[in-house]
Amino acid sequence: MKKMNYQKYAAYPAVNLTARSWPDNTITKAPIWCSVDLRDGNQALPVPMSVEEKVSMFQLLVSVGFKEIEVGFPSASATEYAFVRRLINDNLIPDDVTIQVLTQSRDHLIRKTFDAISGAKRAIVHLYNSTSQLQRDVVFRKNKEEIKAIAVEGTALVRRLKDQSGNAGIRFEYSPESFTGTELDYALDVCHAVMDTWGASADEKIILNLPSTVEMSRPNIYADRIEWFCRHIKARDAVLISVHAHNDRGTAVATAELALMAGADRIEGALFGNGERCGNMDIVVMALNLFSQGVNPELDFADLPRVREVYRRCTRMDIHPRHPYAGELVYTAFSGSHQDAISKGMKAHALSPDGLWAVPYLPIDPQDVGCTYEAIVRINSQSGKGGMAYVLEKDFGLQIPKWMQPDFAEAVQAVADTTGEELSSEQIHELFHAEYVKLKEPVTLKKCHFSWDDEDPLRSDEEATTINCIVQMRESEFNFEARGNGPLDAFVKGFIKESGLEFSVEEYAEHAIGRSARALAIAYIKIGCADGRIAFGAGIDSNISLASIKATVSALNRLP
Prior knowledge:
Blueprint: E1 32-35, H1 37-43, H2 51-64, E2 68-72, H3 78-89, E3 98-104, H4 107-116, E4 123-130, H5 133-140, H6 144-165, E5 170-177, H7 184-198, E6 206-209, H8 219-232, E7 239-244, H9 252-261, E8 266-269, H10 283-292, H11 304-315, H12 336-350, H13 385-396, H14 405-419, H15 425-437, E9 443-452, E10 465-473, E11 476-484, H16 487-499, E12 503-513, E13 520-529, E14 534-541, H17 544-557
Helix pairs in contact: 2-3, 2-11, 4-6, 6-7, 8-9, 12-13, 13-14, 16-17
């Protein structure tokens, strides 16, 4: 096997941080959320959104509850500029929502950006320039002071343009892009220079966004960097620390969560993790992670199917079926042991006095995000007896007793193994009827009449029931009359005497299908023969006594 050349990669440096506090912290409230779907998410799409699609996405984000939304890079293209103007000119921005616009630290781009937001009541101008050693040396070929000067000059221009506009609703955000590739002391030096140039104060806070532009380390090291930065930044009350995590290592959500524990105030991300390369931090996942711990996420994903639909329509991107919380299979169990645990958990939850959600394998109640219980258990060749029973009870009201479930499970798995496909609840219901209810050979009950003549109603052991039956068994037909302590007992005695087949009823259960007075009844039965054979049967009728006799005939027809 060819060996991978791991020696060409260097380990990411650890942070010299003692007595770190973030591992002991707990997230007890939601951060300030900022959606970057319309900027970072949009620029990563194979087919960028049109202005109309952007409007639809913006309205979705507002309905979910975002109060800060990065709407684009208006100096980058005519479409981006037109969209920002559309939002402002058509009064599409609610009074409590702040739009955010991105710009590089270049004079003409900053001025174009201010043109784009003219007339907006609230706006964040997000200025960035790359500060990492790799970008300084390879891309820009500038030293530290020259890179810092770019940030300072851009900040000074934003400050002047804001003052000239007279718009107190304009705020400022600065990102040392490629923060994860920037030396911590240098990133701090640049941010201090930006703060001084802006005149940051507790009354006019600056947002310092410290992005994991490329995810280069474990989440705990990023958290160390955020805690170090929060410790060393001057005038901490004059800044909001924001993080913008990418998913190159597949841990962007953990990176953002640990950063919040380390002191961050604000989180940027996108729905379903859309973004460059491996994507942005997934706000849906992080918000619902908080929700699952009893923390108000301050974003409303109660109608997650609608969020999915608008997202797919606007971005032309799909959502993985195993995506946390939102994938079409995440609340579904195929495994037999999982199905059994979920079935028992759902029944226990229905009886729980405190109402707290505690169902195995389901971290949240699917109904809380607009999903139903219909697909919690789905049946294939990996499924078990509990899952099949759950489906039949939930969808059709059939409560197959535990002692009968293994028998039906064999029938279902035989079909699933043969087809190699998932079975719908309708197919399982049809199979149950085919296996038990509709059997007509070799025994057919052609006529059945019973009467009750009890001389002493207080006695429970008296054979007071008389039954008269006509039965077809293979090529012969016979009738019999028998007495017993009930219709089933009388039928068994009469059938044994007439047919010569020795058997006994070993298990029996019954219930109504539905709750109305006209509901049908179903009986389940297990019989055992003198020669050791056993069989299971089921019968359905409006008369429970007749249902039990039909169940016995069903079992006789299924004898091996």
